[in-house]
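QA checklist item 7 of 12: single-chain prediction sanity check.
[x] sequence parsed
[x] length recorded as 203
[x] structure emitted
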Amino acid sequence: MKDQSEFAKNIIKIYKKHARAWTELRGQLLYEKAWLNYFLSLIPEHAQILDLGCGSGKPIAAYLIEQGHSVVGVDSSDVMIEMAKHNFPEQHWIQTDMRQLDLGQKFQGILAWDSFFHLTQDDQRKMFAQFSRFAEQGTVLMFTSGPAAGEAIGDMFGDVLYHASLSQQEYRQLLKDHGYEVVKMLAEDPDCAGHTVWLAQKL
């Protein structure tokens, strides 16, 4: 497949440009609820959760907060972070690129839902060191990917939206190499809008 990774450079700009329209389109339907419940079942009460690509904080971070957890949300879009701060001022919201995040903190849960898969394949490989950096023994990691290795181009309000994925085998190896055990993985889950979801725990 032709390398389309040049389009990845525009992702942050697109989410800044269309932040409010995307948030409205996304809506409040929590189709991820079953996976979020599984994720939460593996972490302690009143946990610290790192949400990479948090958007406006709704509906995912909102659900985590409702369950009694504290959220540190990270997003590259200043508009998304402004909305998140407005929605949940008591939580911690950081405008930065997840690849460059530098925090002296460990988390019991790390979430990269519909965000990690906008990175190039090489950047995805490098992110596993980031996941480990913020994890302690028992930390639960959940992220979405594509179902197979490759690049895909979508559309957001007329702008080209880049996605990439590694192979399932490579994700499993990267998780293993960084001390994670796969708890559950499902490709193109029909009960979750066709998402491919990975749930792993740090050993």
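[x] summary fact logged: The chain has seven helices and nine strands.
[ ] second reviewer sign-off
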